[in-house]
Amino acid sequence: MKILLADDDAERAGAVVRVLAADPDLVVVHLPASASLADAVAAQAPDVVLVDMARPDRDALEGIRQVTARNPRPVVLFVDQDDPAFMEEAIGAGVSSYNALGVMPPDVKPILRAAVALFRRHQQAQRDLQEAESRLQERAIIDRAKAVLIRKRRFSEPDAYKWLRSQAMSQGRRIVDIAAEVMRKTGEHAE
């Protein structure tokens, strides 16, 4: 697992690197203080981003928002002080794991792995939702095309579907594409 560590405190960052470096399966890349988090994520393609800050900093959330928008990755955030309002903002910005700790725990690996797992689960849920929405839109187009065929050609509903299916099979196309074509040819709206 490749970890991009963003921490302006050199002593704390060094402690984190030492803890993580003990695991040969982890590669830690430290973000230089002047570097952009979003640019570093794009260049390094880490599996997880670990951001450690002494105090909640709303300006730092902008970098996390940019990462979420450009190259979504699981982001683990460690802060020294708990701030419920900041936690809400951080999660809204794309933080996968928000951790309020006075000092870095001796083993952050389970937290990092949990953040990666939660991030992957969220990404899969997003893909599943998009796929379901797409299927519903396609189904609506097919239903409207069937209604046109029923009205214009006096097909029954099963016959309208059979006609769409046979056209799709004979042309090697998807039923929804045939349905959209029916809608275009008859001047109906497919949306």
Strand portion? 5-15%
Give the overall shape, derived from the CA principal axes.
elongated
The separation of the N and C termini measures 44 Å
Query: Helicity range of the residues?
Result: 55-70%
- The count of domains is 2
Uncertain stretches: none
> What class would the helix/strand composition place it in?
alpha/beta
Largest sheet: 5 strands, parallel
Give the CATH superfamily of the largest domain. Answer: Response regulator
Question: Helical segment tally?
Answer: 7
What is the name of the CATH architecture of the largest domain?
3-Layer(aba) Sandwich
- Average pLDDT confidence is 87
CATH topology tier name of the largest domain: Rossmann fold
- Give the C-level CATH assignment of the largest domain: Alpha Beta
Order of helices and strands: EHEHEHEHEHHH
Tell how many strands the DSSP assignment holds: 5
What is the CA-based Rg, rounded? 25 Å
Strand order of the largest sheet: 2-1-3-4-5
Report on this model:
α1 links the parallel β1 (2-6) and β2. The protein has 191 residues and is α/β, with parallel strands linked by helices. The chain is elongated and about 80 Å long. The longest helix has 45 residues, at 109-153. The mean pLDDT is 87. It has helices spanning 10-21, 37-44, 58-70, 84-93, 109-153, 157-171, 175-185; strands at residues 2-6, 27-30, 48-53, 75-79, 97-100. It contains seven helices and five strands. Helices cover 60% and strands 13% of the residues. The protein folds into two domains: 2-107, 3-Layer(aba) Sandwich (Rossmann fold), CATH 3.40.50.2300; 132-185, Arc Repressor Mutant, subunit A (Orthogonal Bundle), CATH 1.10.10. α6 crosses α7 (175-185). The protein has a five-stranded parallel beta sheet, sandwiched between helices.
